[in-house]
Amino acid sequence: LPICLLRWKGYGSWESFTQAEGLPSNAVWELCPDGAGGLIAGSNEGVAHLPVGARRFQLLAGTEQLRSVVYAVARTQDGSLWFSSDSTLYRQRRGKGGMEQYALPGLSPELRAAGQDLWVGTVRGLYVIHTGLRDGRLEPFLPMGNLAIRKLAKGSGGKMWVSASDGVHRVDPARGTAPLLLPTARGLDVYSLAMDREGSVWVGVDQKGVFRVRFDGDRVKSMDRIERPTLHSRVISQVYVDSRGWVWVSGDAGLD
To answer: Which pairs from 214-218 meet CB under 8 Å and 24+ separation?
Structure first.
């Protein structure tokens, strides 16, 4: 469980943020840019905002009534901010106070924005909201059925990589397909994933480290395993590829 938020200010220099710096809770689950150089944080006690240049967090204006666990935060192309808490999805439109609510079929641990679309991963399937449409309804992505969704990652060509209870799928919204490319039957119980600049998919596998997987179409071309002692952690919680192309891995023994 995270117990504070750290900001890297340069080599050898870190700045910490806790409740003493305005966070509603020291347990921070998700971070998202606010679109103006600031930062939005989803915590155990609601949504906090650190405006650009500020030294303290504050409750995000218009979300004061949301004081429960916020597992995921996302920002779509229209400037809307989205938050998931328990079985409810909240939307705060740009320039407007208050929040709209969407009932979800179950807990939603994952939100991922892709252009005007918001992808919503729940314990009972994958959903999408087309924010460019006037009604903006929550629609099920039927090829994924009622699978429990663990992680979402943006791919190339408008595709989305999805880690679900049965394995890793590559979702093609245009074709309405979601082939299963890495089934859990292969011993790969994937809880985190990310795509690098070369098109490889990095997956964090419970108790087995991290794998770099290259595909040739729908076929696995190669699979390289990175584990201890190269990685310090055995239990992998997150895999992230930054803007430089560097791969970061967090787990039970810190950050690699």
So the answer is: 215/181, 218/170, 218/179, 218/181
